[in-house]
Specification:
- The structure holds 2 protein chains of 2 kinds.
- Chain A is of the alpha/beta class.
- Chain A has one domain: Aldolase class I (TIM Barrel, Alpha-Beta Barrel), CATH 3.20.20.70.
- Chain A is built from 11 helices and 9 strands.
- A 9-stranded parallel β-sheet of chain A has the order 5-4-3-2-1-9-8-7-6.
- Chain A is globular and about 45 Å long.
- Chain A starts with a helix and ends with a helix.
- The model of chain A has no long low-confidence stretch (mean pLDDT 97).
- Chain B folds into 2 domains: 145 residues, Rossmann fold (3-Layer(aba) Sandwich); 218 residues, 3-Layer(aba) Sandwich (Rossmann fold), CATH 3.40.50.
- Helices cover 41% and strands 17% of the residues of chain B.
- In chain B, strands 3-4-14-9-10-13 form a 6-stranded mixed β-sheet, sandwiched between helices. A 4-stranded parallel β-sheet of chain B has the order 7-6-5-8, sandwiched between helices.
- In chain B, a hairpin with a 2-residue loop joins strand 11 and strand 12.
- In chain B, helix 2 packs across helix 4, helix 9 packs across helix 11 and helix 13 packs across helix 14.
- Chain B is globular, with a radius of gyration of 19 Å.
- In chain B, 61% of the residues are buried.
- Classes of the chains: A alpha/beta, B alpha/beta.
- Chains A and B meet through helix 3 and helix 5 of A and helix 1, helix 8 and strand 11 of B.
- The complex binds pyridoxal-5'-phosphate (PLP).
- Pyridoxal-5'-phosphate (PLP) binds next to helix 5, helix 11 and helix 14 of chain B.
């Protein structure tokens, strides 16, 4: 069983959703981002790690700031891999999902990228601008290496399309809660989001469906029924705030993740 | 890779939206799949609809002012002593540039789609100005995304946009120019696609936006073909069509009717922005053989580093200051149907000086890049060669830059 699947199995046994965190590799620098990961992994079930891109067409201000900060600090894709490798050496069973934009992968070469992901211990990949069915080949290549390719569905995805996407998905599917870039305010009621979530779930009960976009300390409890919940921008924002106030982002971000976890336990 | 004859270039893509099997496509977030599909269905339906075509032609004629004139630049030709140089005065179009064609069509589409809001990007400010005009004309609410650097250097167009009731959203991220404006506009559309239509200001972006834009600007070459035939009673044996290339909407529109001709008869020359003379930064991905990459939802040659990060660009002309280029120009390059080169800031400024001294026209800094190439090659060309430059924008917007750099504005 994949580490991603076991993580969900564990949280289901504990009768709670999995907590997925998203932070950007290299934010606010290489060393700190690794420390943040190692620390929040004590409360998070799955760690999503962003590899930064400088023209992110689906990210809001918070994640953009994190990505720009990481790039300004000179983060390269090889650094992202070394962060994952280092993280995995101390947290072998914690699933890691890399998330980013396709051009970075494309320049590296699909096969090359997937091979190195495998080598350093990446468990899953989310590629924001490689939708279904364009992602079919890439997803297949991931599967061959036992890497989860995580499909996204959104409020604009028709039921017919959703059916095909779910059918082609691996262990986990990411449901985008609303029409928004990352970091937007939750503008749809949790009830509506969960209604839609249930529809997706009906296609295949065995798939782990996580909800992301607009989830914060305030909103997380209301979506507790989902298999998993992703919090990203709220953490990136905390890193920005910590940098601004010259505080330690590791402590501050960990505190938030701790609180998030409490709210869904 | 081969071009097909008798099929518009915008339609020579495969089922996945790729030209030449690798340029273009739809690299978009899941949320945009449906709106892009809806837009594609709508456009493919109306583009052959007689009623819609009648409407388009009506507005092209009565609102945009088609046809724009075609004229010989007698003094410039004599001065350079080689080819006969002509200009297609697209800057006469309502608003002062070719961007009005795409903007008008998008506004019509927005109406048909039943959406009340329209958003767009702009660099030089022309795409934004024209969209604001069309929005006003058709009763749509309009938001324009523009890099803060461009807002400062293209003020007259910002004033025009505001006068038309559009809101300008300043973009502070990245290099604060067109590339960031397009990104921000796409992000806005991701969040608001349920009630908002997006216009992309050039032949870039996801497949359908390339097509709509190229379909719209193609009007330029339909007019030009008639004008050439009327001027020469035939299509001359040696023609060179010179056009500046930012995203490439103006160039595609200028060339589309002539792509099927042999390149020995009609040469297509695209001129990108070379940037300041000794600067490493430029906005000329085709000239400098930039690598294939993904930018704004499409695969195309793009100025980028080995890590896939998009490069900053630098050009005196905000309209050309873009690291990417249209997938259809990538195809024209790789099939060798068109030739691409670049002109520096200085060459464009010198071209402005010479052209405005000798002729009663006032081309903006973008077409001045094309004039720079015309000035460079014409002296060596035979008298029976016809060089035609698309003068696709008016220099009013460049008033401040020209004052600073040349101490004058015509
Ligand atoms: C006058 C003018 N010419 C040319 C361009 C370049 O765009 P494209 O190559 O897409 O026609 C612009 C873009 O803003 C422009 O304003």
């Amino acid at each position: 069983m994949s580490l991603i699947n076991s993580a969900f199995k564990k949280t289901k046994n504990e009768k709670r959703p999995a907590l997925l965190t998203y932070t950007v590799a290299g934010d606010n620098n290489k060393k700190k981002s690794l420390e943040i990961l190692k620390s929040i992994a004590n409360y998070a079930d799955i760690c999503e790690i962003g590899f930064p891109h400088n023209t992110p067409i689906a990210d809001g201000g918070q994640i953009q700031s994190s990505a720009y900060r990481a790039l300004k600090n000179g983060i390269k894709i090889k650094d992202v891999f070394s962060i994952v490798k280092d993280f995995k050496q101390s947290k072998q069973t914690k699933p890691v999902i890399l998330m980013g934009y396709y051009n970075v992968i494309y320049q590296y070469g699909d096969n090359n990228f997937i091979n190195i992901c495998k080598k350093v211990g990446v468990d899953g990949l989310i590629v924001v601008d490689l939708p279904y069915p364009e992602n079919k080949d890439f997803a297949k290549k991931c599967k061959k290496k036992n890497i989860n390719f995580i499909q996204l569905v959104s409020p604009t995805t028709s039921l017919n399309r959703m059916k095909k996407i779910i059918k082609d998905s691996h262990d986990m599917v990411y449901y985008i809660s609303m029409l928004s870039t990352t970091g937007g305010k939750l503008k749809v009621s949790p009830k509506k989001i969960l209604e839609r979530y249930n529809k997706i779930k009906k296609f295949n009960k065995n798939k782990n469906i996580v909800i992301g976009f607009g989830i914060t300390e305030k909103t997380i409890a209301s979506l507790k029924k989902a298999d998993g919940l992703v919090v990203g921008s709220a953490l990136c924002k905390e890193i920005s705030k910590s940098v601004e106030k010259r505080q330690n982002p590791v402590t501050n971000v960990t505190n938030i993740v701790k609180k998030l976890r409490k709210k869904i336990s | 890779m081969k071009l097909k004859k008798k099929i518009p270039l915008i339609d020579q893509h495969d089922k996945s939206g790729f030209w030449g099997g690798k340029f273009g496509g739809n690299f978009i977030p899941e949320t945009l799949k449906k709106p892009v599909e809806d837009l594609t269905d709508l456009f493919e339906r109306i583009r052959y609809d007689k009623k819609f075509l009648k409407q388009r032609d009506y507005y092209f004629k009565n609102y945009i002012g088609s046809p724009t004139s075609f004229k010989k630049l007698q003094n410039l030709s004599r001065h350079l002593g080689g080819a006969q140089i002509y200009a297609k005065m697209v800057s006469e179009a309502n608003g002062g540039a070719h961007k009005i064609y795409n903007a008008t069509v998008h506004a019509l589409i927005c109406k048909l789609a039943g959406k009340k809001y329209i958003v767009g990007d702009t660099g030089a400010g022309y795409a934004g100005k024209m969209l604001s005009m069309a929005a006003k004309k058709f009763g749509l609410k309009c938001k324009i995304f523009m890099g803060i650097k461009d807002m400062k250097r293209q003020k007259p167009n910002c004033t025009a946009m505001r006068k038309n009731g559009a809101e300008i959203v300043p973009v502070y991220s990245g290099s604060q120019t067109l590339v960031d404006a397009v990104s921000e506009c796409m992000r806005y559309w991701v969040s608001n696609c349920n009630n908002t239509h997006m216009c992309i200001g050039s032949t870039v972006g996801p497949n359908i936006f390339v097509k709509i834009c190229g379909w719209s600007t193609a009007q330029i070459s339909r007019e030009l073909k008639i004008q050439i035939e009327s001027e020469f009673q035939t299509i001359p044996k040696k023609i060179k069509l010179i056009n500046c290339v930012g995203g490439g909407s103006s160039a595609y529109g200028f060339w589309s009717e002539f792509i099927d001709y042999d390149k020995k008869q009609i040469e297509l020359i695209g001129v990108e922005a070379g940037g300041p003379k000794n600067s490493k930064l430029h906005a000329a991905p085709l000239t400098n053989s930039a690598k294939l990459g993904i930018l704004h939802g499409a695969a195309a040659y793009v100025c980028q580093n080995a890590e896939g990060q998009i490069n900053d660009t630098e050009s005196i002309s905000a309209g050309l200051d873009y690291p990417g280029v249209s997938p259809i120009h990538c195809l024209l390059k790789d099939t060798k149907r068109a030739r691409y080169t670049s002109a520096t800031d200085e060459a464009a400024l010198n071209a402005y000086k010479l052209v405005t001294k000798l002729e009663r026209i006032n081309p903006s800094l973008e077409p001045c890049h094309a004039f720079a190439e015309a000035i460079k090659i014409s002296p060596k060309l035979s008298k029976d060669t016809v060089v035609i430059v698309n003068s696709c924008g008016d220099a009013k917007k460049d008033r401040d830059i020209l004052k600073v750099r040349l101490g004058k504005f015509k």
